Amino acid sequence: MATEQRSARIANQTSTIIFLLCAIFIVAVIMGVFLFLGSNAFRVFTEGATLKDFFSSANWDPTGNNDVNGNPSFGAAGLILGSVVITLLSVLIVIPLAFGMAIFFTEVAPAWLTKILQPLLEIFVGMPSVVIGFLGLTVLVPSLTKLVAPLTGGLPTAGYGWGAATLVLVVMILPTVISISIDALRAVPGSVREASLALGSTRWQMMLRAVIPAATTGLATAVVLGMTRAIGETLAVSMVLQGAKLPKNIFTPLVFFQPNVNITSAIVQDFAETLGSARDAYWTLAFILLVITFIFICISRYLASRSVYK
């Protein structure tokens, strides 16, 4: 008996040490990524770039190829604006669609229909981004070109840009937000629904005034995670942006229907061909994306730790 207890204690201690080492390793890898990107990112500000120009100018030319004298320019405001615009627009479109579908799954749809639709939704969650990007390039872009032809004068590149990128992101993040929203609504105790109905609420009043408020933190977490995926998406967005710089007429609706830019498309298209300070500038863009994603994740963890009903 004593031998068995000693063996069990040794096994528990060994498991604890192994799990602790795994946790330390994961934290070290994450910290290493931050330190590596940070050390490369801030180097560009010692090589001619300034914080003011980096975040206020839209002239992004770190190699100096477009300047007569070959002087580089590190204005990333246009790239940052592109990422922010397409992310916010896609999330604004996704929110009502995702919440409506999640409510349908949890409160309205019969069980047999849910069993059919749930696997389909999970398939879309895991769909590769290159497939969605290819569909956007071959189906969405030509359709948008024809749709906005009266406004653009029939330009062949009118289908590219923020409009196509926003719709591509909607398709990409919608299944994720729906899936997390369904879990959040299903986590609401049945007693909340019963109490609302007992007080005389109709079924729709129960959903709107009891279930959704009870799942607010979970639904907000779904939105934040959708934003995290949207702002970091690279391949699919780059395939439908096809721009090299920010268009001049950014204060007109036409800005959405011409080749445009964002952070991820600039990195994937130009990083491999740059050296020196130009490469450091792209490290800075990568670090900005990492920081934004980290902030979104922190917000989602904070929201997940809160609950409307204790």
Overview features:
2 strands; MetI-like fold; two-stranded antiparallel ribbon; 310 residues; single chain
Short description:
The protein has about 300 residues and is mainly alpha-helical.
Explain how this protein is built:
The protein has 310 residues and is mainly α. The protein folds into 2 domains: 2-42; 50-304, MetI-like fold, CATH 1.10.3720.10. The protein contains 13 helices and 2 strands, in the order ααββααααααααααα. The two termini are 44 Å apart. The relative contact order is 0.14.
Could you give the topology of this structure?
Blueprint (H helix, E strand, L loop, with lengths): L1 H40 L9 H6 L3 E2 L11 E2 L2 H32 L2 H15 L3 H19 L1 H4 L9 H25 L3 H9 L4 H12 L1 H17 L2 H7 L21 H8 L5 H29 L6
Antiparallel strand pairs: 1-2
Helix pairs in contact: 1-13, 3-7, 3-10, 4-7, 5-7, 5-11, 7-10, 7-11, 8-9, 10-13, 11-12, 12-13
Q: What is the CA–CA distance across the termini? A: 44 Å
Poorly predicted residue ranges: none
Strand content: under 5%
The chain-level structural class is: mainly alpha
What number is the mean pLDDT? Answer: 85
CA-based shape? globular
CATH level-two architecture of the largest domain = Orthogonal Bundle
Q: Reading side by side through the largest sheet, how are the strands ordered?
A: 1-2
Helix content: over 70%
Q: Kindly state the number of beta strands.
A: 2
| Rg (C-alpha, Å) | 24 Å
Main pleated-sheet profile: 2 strands, antiparallel
CATH superfamily of the largest domain: MetI-like
Q: Write down the secondary-structure element order.
A: HHEEHHHHHHHHHHH
**SS field, number of helical segments:** 13
Total domains, how many?
2
